Amino acid sequence: MTILTEKPDVIEPDSDESAAVLLTSHQTLLTAPGGPFELKPELRQLCALTSDGILYVSAQHQTDAYVMAFEDQLEHENHHFEVKVCSMSTIKALYRANDDANGKALSATETKRQAQVVQLLGEAHRRNASDVHFVVGHDITRIFFRIHGLLWEAEQHQSQVGMELCSSLYNSMCDVAKDHYQPQVSQDARVKRAYVDQLGLFGARVATRPLVDGPLMVLRLLYDDKTKMTLSDLGFLTQQIDAFSRIRSLPYGVNLITGPTGSGKSKSLQVNLNLLHEECGGTKHILTMEDPPEYPLLANQSPLGAGETWNDGITNSMRLDPDILMYGEIRDLASAQAAFRGGMTGHLVLTTLHTNNAVAALQRLIDMGVDRHLVTDPALMTSVVNQSLLPVLCSHCRVPAREHLGQLNSALVQHLRDLEAIDETYLKGPGCPHCKGLGITGRTVVAETLLTDLEFMRVFNGQGASAARRHWVKEMGGITKTAHTIIKLKQGLVDPRHAEMTVGPLDFDRQILELAHAE
């Protein structure tokens, strides 16, 4: 290593243009994203290595431990370099000039891939896909659409094409990407508003992760779906709709909508918050905290700020004079405790949590570290809804199960016999023009709604979650998700294979609750 100067003013371009000239004379940056010595974002603020061996180092950070460690790495790899001291603004300008230079070189490819992505997402939107998966393998990239909860292969490309599609989408079509696309690390981003509007979407978020043979990129497409704006449209039963009405009438308390990813929790929140707004005539302040907002609401919607934690956001929201608070998700102990603080301070709180059933949500909160006395206070923990979504069969091409029992495994056939449901059950058909060849026309909710009371909480505290679930069904008239599924199965709405894949075995209540279905 050679230090050319220790004076920070030896190299001090006074503009991005001069930095670009400097970079041109020194070729490219090896420490830029994708380079052989790619640095983490925070270290790229302190130094930059050009391809002709000049290492630009911030004057104030010459003895920084990370900078010195990078210099040691270069020496260890026998990479000759000379140090030039400069300001941090010069280093920033060098990286910007490098980005501009690469952008010009890649503009033709980027433009082509960008147009390809827009066309692809347009097709996904036309087919009502909720997600688009880019799976880049060693030789082939496979692209899937998730339509009505099921994955369908849409396209195949050479691996390099898939990599370029992912890179173009992340680098040039996203506005909150933290860095350039890096296939070897997990990244999150959001598609720019211009593209979202062009596609007719409410939003689109991006998540990536490296796999064994290449990267995976998944886009969640967010729609402003005005076709399902009532709880009945979503598929809830009359008893469950009455439970939601009771929840909306409460003056305060914590109310959870739970279920797995993609189970329609945010849509149910949207419908209920819009009903709240209508029922109170706009006289109550409804404030949300979301990451990101997934549906337009009749409320003051607030996205989580950059670098802001859920705990910070929730704590701040309670200072903004709300009556009703909606938090997009309880993710950890801090956000759970903050949500309970909202309930304890006189607010009606609605939020989501990932659990398998309604009663399990209470144990999940306790396991997360929320005080058991808070979780089991029925005046504070006022309700839990758990839901899943099942594909709805096309009524034009569905086929009677009785005529196709050979397609079902023996255990499922026996479950249908025990339920005396074979003659009422249908299977997914071959597809037709009415369902665009899918055999599926949409999705419907199967759910359970738990309104807590003192006796339920006593059973939960004294005998555990399983006893509390039995009490809810036997003594409180609770309808389990399995029972709701069987109702829709006997209506010919859902395929029993989809039902068992999503909700579980049709005899699950008999096993867990020790109840006969006849009851």
From TrEMBL:
It comes from the Bacteria. GO terms for cellular component: plasma membrane. This is Flp pilus assembly complex ATPase component TadA. GO terms for molecular function: ATP binding; ATP hydrolysis activity. InterPro entries: P-loop_NTPase, T2SS/T4SS_dom. Pfam families: T2SSE. Keywords: ATP-binding, Nucleotide-binding. It comes from Pseudomonas veronii. Residues 118-474 form the Bacterial type II secretion system protein E domain. Belongs to the GSP E family. The gene is tadA.
